[in-house]
Design goal:
2 domains
Amino acid sequence: MVSRRTFIVTAATAIVAPRIGAQQGQQTMSGPMDEATYRPVSRPPKAGARASLSDDARDALEHRIHCQCGCTLDVYTCRTTDFTCPVSPQMHRDVMALVTGGYSADEILAAFRDTYGDKVLMAPPRQGFNWAGYVAPFIAVGAGTILLAVLLKHWHKPEASVAVSAVDATSDELRRLDEAIRRDD
């Protein structure tokens, strides 16, 4: 049998330790890194192609692409914080090649989606059933707020009025009872 203290310390360690590691810039893995998950994303360069994105725009784009090494990070964060990742540098090279090939951010995202599917996106696209993921939290908060308001209003009723309505007494009897209670001080 595990003591309550041991249980609480173990549970707290399991909850807090991964968050501390993530805050310190360490990669939190959801599984082992797997270089085999990398699939090249390439398109032929457009005619007269010039770099289509600035470095900042490219980095912002990489924040929208999920690294496929098994971590929970985007490509930019994974390649700049975990130097042992074999996948994020390859995905970065693909992004760079598409940028120099004259492709826009939306076209690059489409190329990655064609290769990996929607799982390559850090946030699901706002279409179809995915809208439920965007709308459900607001509905839940709204319903919770309404429920809380109703409960608070119900709980706020004075108890004296409840007791009076439950007792079959005249106002004269209630006055005499009140006087008797006050004399008892």
